[in-house]
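Figure 3 (text version): structure tokens given as input.
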């Protein structure tokens, strides 16, 4: 899946796909149906209400043309001595009423469109977040996936609102064009086709503009991601201390300015190209409008249209020209947004294979043996496998250690055993059954993983522990028991609000913890999940030596018979494990108990002695 995401996110391929999209009536029909479904699913009531208001606005505009003609007729027929007559003030009052109604309808439409746009955006966020949390973990190792995710967040999620506006503007302009066109037809049918032709240059220019906009967005996605990353480095809480300690402020800001300047230069070029197209389209449209008005003057001179009809026709031409341009602008907005919606649709498809797969049974509640059977895994974009032909075995109730130098593949192997990565070759088996036989969610629920780079949730201490199992409400007694087993209870209970205290200074009343205290909270999170298999990735990295020794001394009693797989590069912590697997360059190079591995005089014995030498007294010179 990750490789597919990488392919689909390739900028050259995306631009080629965009250019291949023909701006045809068939394409417009597809986009309109998709847009209507999108908006309708968000709020049928608001959508229908806006359509009703659009029709009302169209009727009001058509009425204004006819009332203007009635007013002019009454004015021309008015005798100087007769004063105001019903023939004059009735159409004048009608014109005022229709003008006020049009203004009120416009104001109400604005508020309703804003609300509908937010509802559409909310629906899109739900789908995008569903994909982001539903794709396999390997997708997050792919730059292509992040490019696509960034593009969806910055463009495709705002486009549904523009589609909503474009769709409603099209509906209103179409209804108004029909109404005003019918009114104009009573004066002179010849003027209608000229006004329609006047909108075509705008549409043709808009077609090219939509392609330019999508191409620009695709090209600038990496630049936008880098700007956001450099912004995070300068504003992030965790990064702030190192930025100041190393004096990186000017260095980072200079890089940020350089990236932004490059973007602004390309943006200027892009906007100038769009402006030229827009000017050409509108100039051509203006020329056709002048010709239309010239035809009207010619008809007045020949007596084919009277003065009142001419006045009403001028109003109708101006209104209809605006509506025709609005209609074509709405079409252009749908086309332009359609390219981004296609990109969004492709992103949403990333999670579809898993959702459409046949339902799988749940994993068993317990197991006798867990095996990694000759598994191989390569990260997206990498040429060399991170894990190659690795096999490990964990029997129920055992404590098994995975050791090795940095980069040896320990954490990747743990993620494979946890079902977070799917092996390219080989299999993870429970009692001989491949875990891919069961639903991924049920497999994950049987495993508690404590990562070295665990998440520090800016939530209460209770929430941080209870995040280990959110299948039901947090159980206070269970939270306290898990915190006690991990050695986190003392630090939490010393906080102003105890377990209710937010563990972050981002929010009022919040308090932060030390690195070691946070590590204990993360371990408590794993203990809170009553899973038969517990995987601990460098669980003592932030602990002091006393706390580390206590953690491993109490590990068996704390787990209460559950199976544990823990990863460490500190060989002193693994001596009591039932079995130790030693990894190097992605492979398991030896395994056994501490005593067996030391007698073998292999890789483990070498690394153990190197680490032990740092703590042993050295002989004095000449001793």
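Below: residues designed for each position.
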């Amino acid at each position: 899946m990750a490789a597919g995401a990488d392919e689909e996110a390739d900028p050259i391929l995306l631009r080629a796909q965009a250019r291949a999209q023909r701006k045809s009536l068939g394409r417009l029909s597809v986009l309109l149906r998709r847009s209507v479904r999108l908006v309708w699913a968000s709020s049928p009531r608001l959508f229908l209400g806006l359509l009703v208001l659009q029709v009302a606005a169209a009727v009001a505009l058509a009425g204004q043309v006819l009332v203007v003609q009635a007013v002019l007729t009454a004015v021309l027929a008015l005798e100087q001595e007769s004063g105001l007559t019903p023939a004059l003030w009735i159409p004048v009052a009608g014109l005022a009423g229709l003008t006020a109604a049009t203004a009120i309808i416009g104001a109400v439409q604005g508020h309703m469109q804003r609300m509908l746009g937010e509802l559409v955006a909310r629906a899109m966020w739900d789908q995008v977040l569903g994909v982001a949390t539903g794709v396999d973990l390997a997708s997050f190792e792919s730059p292509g996936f992040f490019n696509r995710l960034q593009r969806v967040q910055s463009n495709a999620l705002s486009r549904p609102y523009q589609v909503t506006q474009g769709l409603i503007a099209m509906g209103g302009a179409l209804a108004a064009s029909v109404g005003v066109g019918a009114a104009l037809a009573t004066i002179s049918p010849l003027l209608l086709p000229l006004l329609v032709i006047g909108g075509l240059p705008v549409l043709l220019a808009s077609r090219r503009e939509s392609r330019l906009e999508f191409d620009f967005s695709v090209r600038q996605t990496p630049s936008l991601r880098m700007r956001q990353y450099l912004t995070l480095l300068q504003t992030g809480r965790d990064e702030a201390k190192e930025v100041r300690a190393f004096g990186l402020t000017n260095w980072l800001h200079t890089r940020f300015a350089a990236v932004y300047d490059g973007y602004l230069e390309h943006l200027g070029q892009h906007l100038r190209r769009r402006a030229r197209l827009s000017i050409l389209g509108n100039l051509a449209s203006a020329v056709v409008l002048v010709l239309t008005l010239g035809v009207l003057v010619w008809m007045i001179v020949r007596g084919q249209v009277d003065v009142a009809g001419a006045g009403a026709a001028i109003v109708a031409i101006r209104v209809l020209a605006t509506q025709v341009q609005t209609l074509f602008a709405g079409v252009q907005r749908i086309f332009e947004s359609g390219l981004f919606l296609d990109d969004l649709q492709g992103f949403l498809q990333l999670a579809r294979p898993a959702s459409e797969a046949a339902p799988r049974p749940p994993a068993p509640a317990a197991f006798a043996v867990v095996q990694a059977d000759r598994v191989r895994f390569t990260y997206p974009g990498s040429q060399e496998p991170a894990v190659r032909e690795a096999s490990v075995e964990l029997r129920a109730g055992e404590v098994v250690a995975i050791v090795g130098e940095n980069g040896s593949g320990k954490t990747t192997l743990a993620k494979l055993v946890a079902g977070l990565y799917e092996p390219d070759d080989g299999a993870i088996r429970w009692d001989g059954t491949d875990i891919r036989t069961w639903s991924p969610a049920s497999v994950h629920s049987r495993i508690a993983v404590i990562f070295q780079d665990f998440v520090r949730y800016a939530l209460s201490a209770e929430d941080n522990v209870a995040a280990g199992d959110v299948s039901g409400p947090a159980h206070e007694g269970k939270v306290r028991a898990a915190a006690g087993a991990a050695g986190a209870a003392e630090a939490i209970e010393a906080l102003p609000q105890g377990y209710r205290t937010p563990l972050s200074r981002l929010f009022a009343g919040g308090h932060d913890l030390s690195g070691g205290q946070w590590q204990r909270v993360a371990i408590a999170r794993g203990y809170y999940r009553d899973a038969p298999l517990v995987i601990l990735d460098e669980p003592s990295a932030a602990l002091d030596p006393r706390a580390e020794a206590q953690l491993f001394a109490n590990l068996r009693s704390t787990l209460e018979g559950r199976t544990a797989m823990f990863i460490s590069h500190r060989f002193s912590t693994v001596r009591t494990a039932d079995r130790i697997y030693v990894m190097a360059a992605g492979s398991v190079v030896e395994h056994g108990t501490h005593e067996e591995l030391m007698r073998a005089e292999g890789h483990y014995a070498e690394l153990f002695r190197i680490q032990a030498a740092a703590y042993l007294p050295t002989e004095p010179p000449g001793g």
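The chain is about 65% helix and 10% strand.
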